[in-house]
Amino acid sequence: MKSNPVGKAASAAAAAIILFVMTGCSGGGGGAASSGDAASVVVETSFDLKTIDPARQFEPTGSMLDHALYESLLTFKGGDVSKPTDGLASFKLSDGDKVMTLTMKDGATFSDGSPVTVDDAVFSLQRVQGIAGNPSFMLKDVKIEKTADKTLTLTSPRPNPALAFILPNPSLGIVNSKVVKENGGTTDKDDKAEAFLNKTSAGSGSYTLSSYDANSQVVLEASPKYHGTAPAKKRVVVRNVAGETQALNIQSGESQVALDLNPDQVKQLDKSAVNVLTEPSTDTVYLMMNQSPAISAWTSNADFNTAVKFGLDYGKILALAGDGAARPGGVVPSEFLGALPTEKGLQFDFAAAKKSLAASGYNGEEVVLSYPNDITLDGLQMQPFAETIQSQLKAVGINLKLAPGPEATELDNYRAGNEQMGLWTWGADYPDPSDYLVYLPGQNLGLRAVWKEGANSEIDSLGAKAVAASGDAARSTAYQDLQIALNERGPFVSLFQPVKNLVTVKSIESAAANPLWLIDIENIK
Amino acid sequence: MVASDEVMSSTLSVADPGESGRGSSLPDVPRTRRYIHPLLRYILIRIGLGVVLVFGVTLVTFSLTNLVPGDPVQAVLGEQASANPEIVKQFRADMGLDKPPPVQYAIYIGNLLQGNLGVSAQTKTPVASDLAVAFPATVELAVAAIVVSIFIGIGLGMWGALRRGRMTDHVIRIVSLVGISIPTFWLALVVYYVFFFKLHALPGSGRLSPITVPPPNVTGLYTIDSLIAGQWKTAMDALGHLIMPASVLALFTIGLLTRFARSSVLEVLNMDYVRAARAKGLPSRAVVMRYVLRGALVPIITVIGISFGSLLSGAVLTEEVFSWHGIGQYAYNGATHLDLPVVMGVGLIVGVIYILVNLIVDVIYGFIDPRVRNP
Fold it and tell me: I need a labelling partner for A515 at 20 to 30 A (CA). Which of A105, B3, B187, B308 fits?
């Protein structure tokens, strides 16, 4: 066996593989070589994409894309969501904030060159209502009417100052009604235009849809008939990439924008290669305690609730969320009107926690804390926070049992009001404090804690005052009063707002993050 | 030679149908059974069993997905919409979940027979369309990985066996052990970090560079489609993007094949017919390639079949690191969002893959070992 045919075969195989690698290298172009040209930009994010039909989408990735494809009647400039500005229309509120009159601007055209009309606006908004999809709640009970060739009115049964903050939402983007109707679009549940709109955009935005794959990649091309200033980037490739890979790609120049890096990943970036824009996210993380004695005798106990609220070391929890994270004093995020300053919020007081726990009669019984363990919020997982809460409350004398689970199964349990304690998140639907009325008794989140309508008359009354308040100053005061009462007597504990990092390569001169649409693609320069 | 002889003798043993009609002493027993080649009959039986198995797979998948303690409608709806009973009711009806499970299953099977796998609740596109994109991506990766694995794994295994007890054998055994033991997710990150990020030796994530436009779709395999379209640059780009994920996946299979090939060859090396071949003075190359390798192939092919089936079922973590949107990622997203049509569709595809791979392996057995087709 001096001659070794297998050895020769193995050598030949190795040579073939080396050749394969070499051809691949020469053909593929490694690393920085594949970064694209000045007229195009590659944006990487972890997709949560389900659709880009504006009337149906309600996820961050879909909002980012639709903001580039469709224009709304009102909008926000850059990342400032404190003041709605004119979009396709100008607006005026009247009749105690119940009636909004919108006047369409001249000169706006869709990507096919046809003008944007008031009929398109009415159709688009009525379609959102009629489809009854995820975003339809934003226009619930709002009557939409064309009142003249260039005006429409939105009439609410109650004062609705939030409407000006709702209309910039990309879900309320204006579609070309003629094109959408031709492709099955209606303003009721029979609408069949989604498949068409996932292949072809029908908006007046600065970009048009070139290709769409909800699993991997979406490509946008600058609209040749855009009526505004042409965007700097002619082609935008938005790719579905995991956070760890995004961090390597952005530093190598494979991509130019990364949207999902957590604080730890940002710390490790080579700052000579990238710019990092850090600001608190408008997502909030909170703790819920079920108010039903049938679910838990302890989480429904007021003194036990107080012990939990005093027993948490909020500063340490915030530090765990990383640099740039924020802690609002109440449930409204710190950037929004009506936010409660941190110092007016709940504070750690170990002695007070022990005293309240003693008053509750609690004697070390097991209380279950549930949370989703397969999702990340702005790059953060819930597990370390659940463990920290368990540890801090153990010091007080509370025996928490952690019960992580997949979001798909936990969500069902939580929404059905079956969890004893829950660690969950709330993302802003629109940047107005009225979006946080869901924490009140009998409302969406209130019911998940089995905090039923009428459970606390004082909070009900403060909630009604907040709804009725008019003018920024009065609304801000009313919402702050409401949150102080919620902190004292509610079943929720607002913990923190994670940090949102927008990372760009140095060649990107400007890019603006926005809580509603992640990044303004049109203004990437 | 043996296989050919067997086939010939089987063919000659069949009587002329006309002859039986003219001179048969049993005219009341008509000869209605046609001659079917044993191998063909074997394949047809396996295909028939495969169809039954596919329906079994649909039933098991459907039952399991219905046992998951979660509501698919809640997984699709946003926070606000989920609080509206009217919207919940409509989504439930749209997703066909308002009917009893047996009716849902009957509808699914009815649609399946028409080639309709349902619509994904996540992507809002037909599952068949999604699979038509995701599956070729996985096939491209799996084929590249298995081809590399076969050459290297069998080569190293045989080499180790022929050099049993020597340094080469020890090194090969360590290498195979390392290949099996290294966590794929970790390896994928390290490989990506070193070869893409640090050395810039290989292209980054995805199936093509971001600026490269995919070739016109024919097979869904970018390497093949770009060659068909004459887009050489795109073909090389696609090839380059295959290297890292395929190598990461191949390492485990190489380790596995090396171990199986080594032990299988060692077993055959001591067989009488191999000793006889050597005693007759046949060259080493002929003994190894014609006698040893052929004799050792049956267990090796079994492992290749299982490994290939596993690769075709998707590799979630490797696909995640390399942004390779194949069937593994698709299945994972479907499962985490309780997207039942996706879970059912992927379950069905994976079931069919294993049935087909096993069928092919069995047919190859038939070619290699006549005892299989003529028991």
Answer: A105
